[in-house]
Amino acid sequence: MTIEPKIPLLEEILSPWQETIGADYEGYRNHVYRMLHFCFYLHPTTREEREKLIIAAAFHDIGIWSEGTVDYLPPSMVAAQDYLKAEGLSHWEDEITLIIDEHHKIRQVRDDRYPLAELFRRADLVDFSLGMVKWDVPKHYINEVKAAFPNAGFHKRLMQLTWAQIKRAPFNPLPMMRW
């Protein structure tokens, strides 16, 4: 499978967020590229599915920086909804909101209306686990994608934020997780 070094729609969506994300921009951008490549590997997409996945991926963790919180799913969903409204794509709001809300779900996402939610969850887990959880993505492809889009401190930043959350709210250390 071909690795796409630039996805124009993704660049268009993410570039206005560069100042907000700051020093973490390259790490987040590369995370989004990695997980999208894993999505595309796991499921050949239609043009519409591809666009939905790109939009969801761009916004799925954005609340970390837009609101400065580890409880980032609600603000990430709001940012995606604002984008969809501005682009005349409000009819995708339910699906993209579900994709973002369920991407850290521990169990499988079972929604026959929106199968992209489970695909997205799996692809994010491939990247979050640093390739230890593979699903059906071969190790050589994971390594190729990781080489094309280096970590750039993304996982280190997640660990720093998680540790700060544990100190701040020890009884709610992972508010973004769903059962």
Could you explain how this protein is built, in words?
It is built from ten helices and no strands. It has one domain (8-168). The chain starts with 7 loop residues before the first helix and ends in an 11-residue tail after the last helix. It has 179 residues and is mainly α. 60% of the residues lie in helices and 0% in strands. The longest helix has 18 residues, at 25-42. It is globular and about 45 Å long. It has helices at residues 8-14, 18-21, 25-42, 47-59, 63-66, 73-86, 93-101, 116-128, 139-148, 154-168. The model has no long low-confidence stretch (mean pLDDT 92).
Average pLDDT taken over every residue: 92
Q: List low-confidence stretches.
A: none
Rounded to an integer in angstroms, the radius of gyration calculated over CA atoms is 15 Å
Task: Please tell me the total number of domains.
Answer: 1
Shape: globular
Biggest sheet descriptor:
none
**Backbone structural class:** mainly alpha
SSE string: HHHHHHHHHH
- What is the rounded distance between the termini? 33 Å
Give the count of helical stretches: 10
Question: How are the SSEs ordered, and which strands pair?
Answer:
Elements: H1 8-14, H2 18-21, H3 25-42, H4 47-59, H5 63-66, H6 73-86, H7 93-101, H8 116-128, H9 139-148, H10 154-168
Keywords:
single chain, 179 residues, 10 helices
Short description, anyone?
By secondary structure, the chain is mainly α.
